[in-house]
From TrEMBL:
Transmembrane segments: none
Gene3D superfamilies: Galactose-binding domain-like, Glycosidases, Golgi alpha-mannosidase II
GO BP term, example: fucose metabolic process
This protein's record includes keyword Signal: yes
Descriptive protein name: alpha-L-fucosidase
Biological role: Alpha-L-fucosidase is responsible for hydrolyzing the alpha-1,6-linked fucose joined to the reducing-end N-acetylglucosamine of the carbohydrate moieties of glycoproteins.
Length: 606
């Protein structure tokens, strides 16, 4: 072979290798030191389970409005994009309004601590390119787009004040850091809102260096950096697009115990970093095989919004919190302080309530792991070795809940009154627990079962509701899937969507439920699904093998409907002996697949 040919081959190989490496990043860009230390670095995070997210920046002064116009979009920190404001104007209007006159970092840290939070993630800078920390980068100190990117008042460093305050309360501290930049001429978004200099081609190399340097500042110029929370990537800009390998290589030397989320890479559930980052939804079956943290807002917006009054109730927050932890995740609850540095009053009130609940029940949160059960009738479960923590959201009138385990029980008690032993009974392969009559506090009541031996989970049964109806959902279904159907949850675009059975085109896949009821008679069978274009077909509901067929229609409404499938008779004999078994099967698919199905309801008829 000639020298030229060999050289050609080598070049080819290198090109091939690097293009492959670019299209599919390895975890941590292949850096072993991250992989090898993961379990030890993540320990505190798994123990903590509960953190505060803070979105604070110039956008707080806009409060979701621009020039008097309300932008109803959920993310007020995106106001610059919604209203298409050039960076210069954005900066000139908002900097003077961002007075932070009532800001007290210690107070924020106390609020978080009192709520039971164990860590905080602070927006060190957001997509607008402005930062709460005092960067010494030349572009940050002075640029001809806006003058500069640092927004702390003279003599102060807002980020630094927060780091010290939270650290002195004993919380771990992380920095949210935007990879997007609407201000920097060399970023990937370039000058999208700004007038570009004639013929200027962005130099991403300069931008990558800027990211590297600023992350170095966050790591080294402050008392601590326990988590780096970069945000966010797309298919066409992820991994090496940000110079991730260089950053990670040094970051772990600067801060050997640091965690990094997965947003240097594309996809909220990608497995490339230490943590998955579902946004505004709880993954229905957790994220097996990875550590994760779901962030939620208390109203709709992350950043402060004057017009967003859609505050979640304390009960809703508790449900999101407990559901997340019961599925193996951490709960990162957001606050969006205003331009004066004040936390919104409704947020303070919610956090106070959470704090009261945590003061009694935190043992059922810190250091617990995911529930051994899927959907339970009465609430959620978390566990520690030898202990089940039962979070009862809906106590039945009977005052008795069923726990599907066959173990012998050592002790059972309310977490609020540990010396008060509760009666348990072993029936048909499960344990019945008599709840205490007292309500100890607002929010879910907490019961502990201490059991003997290795945990043995038995077959779960769905109990009928007080009115006799039987509600069978994607959450309490047993899913039999050949890699086809799965439970699809809400998403950050559709946060209120209930969990549904999705991806159904294979006849072998089905879902089923076992039911506990003692009410014989005629039941009306109803099905809940979300009609969608190009998705339809026939399903079969089998109640104790008796089939009922139903044609699911397709339309573009994309809104949940409830349709009548037919009637079914349940006899006393069936209820007593075999029990009731319901299966939902695919009979025939038209179009791509079946529409998403939330579940089936059986309603007793007079
Ligand atoms: C997002 C948004 C952002 C928000 C965040 C929270 O990707 O762009 O505004 O800060 O994630 O998870």
């Amino acid at each position: 072979m000639t020298k030229k040919l060999i050289l050609g081959l080598v070049v080819c190989l290198v090109i091939n290798f690097s293009s492959h490496a670019q299209s599919k990043s390895e975890p941590y860009e292949g850096l072993k030191e991250w992989q090898d230390t993961k379990e030890q670095r993540i320990e505190w995070f798994n123990e903590a389970r509960f953190g505060m997210f803070i979105h604070w920046g110039l956008y707080a002064a806009a409060g979701g409005l621009w020039n008097g116009e309300v932008y109803p979009q959920h993310y007020s920190e995106w106001i610059q994009a919604w209203a298409k404001v050039p960076s210069k104007e954005y900066s000139e209007v908002l900097k003077p309004q961002f007075t932070v006159e009532n800001f007290d970092a210690n107070y924020w840290a106390e609020v978080a601590k009192d709520a039971g939070m164990r860590y905080v993630i602070i927006t060190s800078r957001h997509h607008d390119g402005f930062s709460l920390f005092n960067s010494e980068e030349p572009f940050a100190l002075h640029n001809d787009v806006t003058g500069g990117t640092n927004i702390s008042p003279k003599g102060r460093d807002l980020y630094g004040e927060l780091v010290s305050a939270f650290k002195s309360q004993g919380l771990k501290v992380g920095a949210y850091y935007s990879l997007l930049d609407w201000q920097h001429p060399d970023s990937y978004e370039g000058f999208q809102f700004n007038e570009n200099k004639k013929g200027y081609t962005p130099n991403h190399q300069i931008y990558k260096q800027y990211l590297y340097n600023q992350i170095k500042e966050l790591a080294l110029n402050y008392e601590t950096l326990d988590v780096l929370w970069p945000d966010f990537s797309r298919k066409d800009s992820e991994g090496e697009a940000w110079g991730t390998r260089e950053i990670l290589k040094d970051l772990i030397k600067w801060r050997p115990n640091i965690l990094v989320n997965n947003r240097f890479w594309n996809g909220l559930e990608n497995k490339n970093g230490d943590l998955g980052t579902p946004e505004k939804y709880v993954p229905p079956t957790g994220l097996p095989g990875m550590y994760w943290e779901a962030s939620h807002t208390m109203n709709e917006s992350y950043g402060y919004s004057k017009h967003d009054k859609n505050w979640k109730s304390f009960d809703k927050i508790m449900e999101l919190f407990v559901e997340t932890v019961s599925k193996g995740g951490n709960f990162l609850l957001n606050v969006g302080p205003d331009e004066k540095g004040e936390l919104p009053q409704p947020a303070i009130e919610i956090l106070e309530q959470v704090g009261k609940w945590m003061a009694v029940n935190s043992e059922s949160i810190y250091g617990t792991s995911a529930s051994p059960f899927y959907g339970l009738d009465w609430g959620y479960c978390t566990q520690k070795p030898g202990k089940l923590f039962l979070h009862v959201f809906e106590s039945p009138k009977s005052g008795v809940i069923t726990v599907p385990i066959t173990n012998e029980v050592k002790n059972a008690y309310p977490l609020a009154e540990t010396e008060f032993s509760l009666a348990t009974q072993r029936v048909e392969g499960s344990v019945e627990l008599s709840l205490s009559e007292k309500r100890y506090h607002q929010g879910p009541q907490l019961y502990v079962i201490e059991y003997i031996g290795e945990l043995e989970v038995s077959e779960q049964k769905v109990a009928s509701k007080e009115d006799g109806s039987i509600v069978l959902t994607a959450d309490n279904a047993k899913v039999s899937s050949s890699n086809g159907i799965y439970i699809k949850g809400a998403s950050h675009n559709y946060p209120d969507k209930p969990n549904c059975i999705a991806g159904w085109s294979n006849k072998e896949d089905y879902v089923s439920w076992n039911i506990n009821s003692n009410r014989p008679g005629t039941y009306k069978v109803l099905i809940n699904y979300i009609p969608e274009e190009n998705k339809s077909g026939q399903v079969e509901v089998l109640v104790n093998e008796k089939p009922l067929r139903y044609q699911l229609s397709s339309s573009s409404t994309n809104k949940m409907v409830e349709a009548e499938v037919g009637n079914v008779e349940l006899t006393q004999a069936e209820l007593g002996s075999t029990g009731i078994h319901v299966a939902l099967k695919l009979h025939q698919v038209q179009g791509d697949e079946l529409p998403e199905i939330q579940g089936v309801r059986l309603v007793p008829q007079k």
